[in-house]
Amino acid sequence: MSFPWAKPYEPKHPLMKWMDEKLPIPRLVYNATGPGYPVPRNLNYFWNFGVLAGAALMIQIITGIVLAMHYAANVGVAFNSVEHIMRDVNAGWFIRYAHMNGASMFFIVVYLHIFRGLYYGSYKAPREMVWLLGVVIFLLMMATAFMGYVLPWGQMSFWGAQVITGFFSAIPLVGEPVRQWLLGGFVPDNATLNRFFSLHYLLPFVILGVIILHIWALHIPGSNNPTGIEVKDEQDTVPFHPYYTAKDGFGLGVFLLVFVALTFFSPNMLGHADNYIPANSLSTPAHIVPEWYFLPFYAILKAFTFNFLWIDAKLWGVIAMFASIALLFFLPWLDSSPVKSSTYRPLYRIFFWVLVADVLLLGWCGMQPAEQPWVILSQLGAIYYFAHFLVILPIVSRIERPLPMPNSITEAVLAKHAPDAASGPAAA
Amino acid sequence: MASESELNAGIEDGVRRRDFINIAAVSFAGVGAVAVVLPLVNQMNPSADVLALSTTEIDVSAIQPGQAIKTSWRKQPVFVRNLVEKEIAEAKAVPLSDLRDPQTIDERTKPGKENWLITLGVCTHLGCVPLGAAEGENKGDFGGYFCPCHGSHYDTAARIRKGPAPTNLVVPPYEFTSDTVVTIG
User: Fold this and answer.
1) What ipTM describes this predicted complex?
2) Under an 8 Å CB criterion, which residues of B touch A?
3) Is A200 assigned a catalytic role?
4) Which residue on chain B is closest to A158 by alpha carbon?
5) Which long-range CB contacts under 8 A does B101-108 form with residues at least 24 apart?
6) Most confident of A106-120, B140-154, B161-175
7) For this structure, is A388 an active site residue?
8) Nearest C-alpha of chain B: how many angstroms from A318?
9) pLDDT tens-digit map of A336-394
């Protein structure tokens, strides 16, 4: 599962030889992230975000396990146990703020990771399975983040649980029983909090398992690169260690700087003040919004305010919201262009940036109350989102005339860095 | 050890005895697995103590015409509203064909007690508590209730008129056990 010129693992020390015969973990590491794994030589900093997402997951798991030592999942004491962590537990405020902001950092790097995949066509053959597993990880992350947000049992926790489990009541016939089954009651209550805590503890390890599959599937064809041209021979690659361990290490340092700046100087910037009010099942906060990373999808949900055909507005909203994510599973087949990188796709590149702007617009609309002009903007944004994947992308990938491409990664790199780059392909 | 000829007994129709044993064993294990999954799924349904909280008594004597109170049943908010004549007349004036979930106000109240509108305070969209029960809250475009989460408007019979909610606010099972006491559930 690597290139023929990959450096073979040859343990010298007798202990390492002994280990290699019994349990070849050092061999696995050497061949996956060491000198034995050749990687395209031209990866830019957008290729840092996979490693950063892994780092963010580890931070969440470690801080989460520690928080679980002090948290109590019971509606009578959950809110106070979080305050106990904040005020009484040694360094508890730091660990909780790190976990809270760690979730946001996780989503930031994963969104940039997805952005990279979309811009450079990393979802295309031969890496479709890598992409599909990535979408599964994204869904698991959303479920985990949602359930984690419920645990402090503040107003946003409670009403978030009420609204999000309410999605399921939109299913015809079985909707309400399904919702009661999920909640273990008629409203979010102790049964709900307990099961959410149990699942919130479980799912990160499921994510870890799918990440292993994601990396396994990636290491079969190897990484994509900014040109989207597959590796042809040894001069197109460098060994992962030390080249990309160093590059990822630098990126990790920058990531940690942003993370600690957020945690120490503005820990509640991305949260909602309402969640510091204990849950009250008889009063909904005046302005209920999800965490920032769900806002574009929330805007799509809110865009449906009228019944259409024989389906009511509520079901439309829920279908559209789930479809907006499920659509990503079909992306490798909706985009039929064999050219991966946007660098060589002048038409796709324009629509790609419009899509980015559209998602940001939807995110902005998601924050706003259900009033005009936000409703109409959400509707236009939602229409464009679906049109991009279902209409624009299939058409563009058929009619587009790609720019001339270099023959190999090495040719692209040398052309870019040659003293006179006049004859080389234009750098994006 | 079974000989080759025994293993292949009856092979002329393409099915060996071992195929039958394989299918039978896997089916049996499958039935067992499903039997084990059932309690694991069912444990998530509302438990007996949650189901037991099923009736609430309310004394409505203190609610003046035009006022409403918020109480709770099965931990869900309940609105009890004493409608004034004008509100009842407004609700009656709406043709059923204008309604998303057509119901008359008589179907939503008890005979002889048409002024008492008792509904769950749970928006049928995604479950927020609509405004309009307390003094001074926004009652929406139709003078009933307004859900601020996603903008559903309900009229004076708590019927959905505008916004994403699919159905009217739910009327829970209830009866007047005396002139002023209502038992919900």
Assistant:
1) 0.76
2) 41, 44-47, 50, 70, 72, 74-77, 100, 121, 124-129, 148-151, 163-166
3) no
4) B128
5) B101/B159, B101/B160, B101/B166, B101/B167, B101/B168, B103/B157, B103/B159, B103/B168, B104/B157, B105/B156, B105/B157, B108/B157, B108/B158, B108/B159, B108/B168, B108/B171
6) A106-120
7) no
8) 10
9) 999 999 999 999 999 999 999 999 999 999 988 877 888 899 999 999 999 999 999 99
